[in-house]
Amino acid sequence: MAYPFRQERNARASCRSILTARKVFMKSRSHTQTEAPTSSSELSTAENELLAAEASSTATGDEAENGTESTAKDEAAGDLKRNAIAGVLFALCATIIWSGNFIVARGLSDVVPPATLAFLRWVTAFTVLLPLGWKSLLRERAVVKRHWKHLAFTALLGITIFNTLIYAAGRSTTALNMSLIAITSPLFIMLLARIFLGEKVSRSRAVGVSVVVCGVVMLVTRGDFARLAGLEFSIGDVWMLCAAMLFGAYTILVRRMPERIEQAAFLLFTFGVGALMLVPGVAWEWAQGLRFEFTPSLFGVMLYVGVGASLISFWCWNKAVGLIGPSQAGIVYYSLPLFSGAEAVILLGEPVSWVHFVSGILILGGIRMATRG
Questions:
Q1: Structurally, how many domains does the chain consist of?
Q2: pLDDT surpassing 50 at residue 35
Q3: What three-state secondary structure class fits 37?
């Protein structure tokens, strides 16, 4: 790493020494011309030697500079590749954890009111993160003060409303409808990234997205595309569609953060503000008599949605957006139904058929194609 820079520094020092020697020689020449004549052949030979040494030193400096530029380019290419791999892995981690959130939304739809469930989720995440992130928030308080409006709006969309709409949708729509509507999130992300960030959609990315959509539709319909014609839509589907659009907007806001901020400070602030903005909704639900009974199993669910589906997954997702951009992270999000299906097989004992394998190949292959584009 340091060798090319040391070589370049030595070469430049050598050039300076030669230039100094040349000045001394020329002064000596003018002085000796007044005292004793010197043969033109001797002078010519000495000048040629100096010029040759200077040219050699300059060439060495150029070689060192070219070597430095080549090394810097190789390092930059390596960093881009590592960032791309890490970004995809972070997005996958977030998607895998989120894949269980639809099961929670559907399973607790009749147990805990949506705003209350969202409030408990974010209070849990805030409480767990507070001992780890309060110092980070103190360090970044100047950034938070300058951009609190952007941060508060991000919290409103991504924390307060987005997840509440998912839990509200689970009360009046089917898991099939939720899965189908959830795959529109990457489309909204790609569209908003094109409008607000100027991200171009390449041909390979468009083809890859099309392949992924086919795989997802095959998975959620279990290979029977006629089921699409028999779908019935309800108000829950409208809530889910709104949630998909809001998640796309949240992802763009994360990318467009006006100033760099530590992840722990960002998450702690948005979790806390987002939970506070849920208080009116919780109060309204309780005023309407929408209560719940706290049980040990509910405590376990709260740990999952609070620590896993909130703290860990949002941290991974924001890292992915920062490394590979919102569009490519959104494409990875298409794999969510695939992981939901795998969890259903493992946890619920649902049967596996050829549809799962074919749709899995289409989803993963399409993601690979789109993220390379």
A1: 2
A2: no
A3: coil
CB atoms within 10 A of CB 17: 12
- Residue 330 in contact with residue 186, Cβ under 8 Å? yes
55 and 113 in a single domain? The answer is: no
Residue carrying the six token digits 């889910």:
240
Position 35, amino acid: E
Neighbours of 106 (CB within 10 A): 18
C-alpha count within 13 angstroms, C-beta hemisphere, residue 251: 33
Nearest-angstrom CA–CA distance, 156 and 149: 10
Structural domain includes residue 20 = yes
Check: pTM over 0.85? Answer yes or no.
no
Structure tokens at 300: 């376990």
Instruction: Average the pLDDT over 341-355 and give the result.
Output: 70
> What are 190's two structure tokens?
């790609």
Query: Does 207 fall in a domain?
Result: yes
**The pLDDT of residue 123:** 95
Same domain for 66 and 154: no
Length of the chain (residues): 373
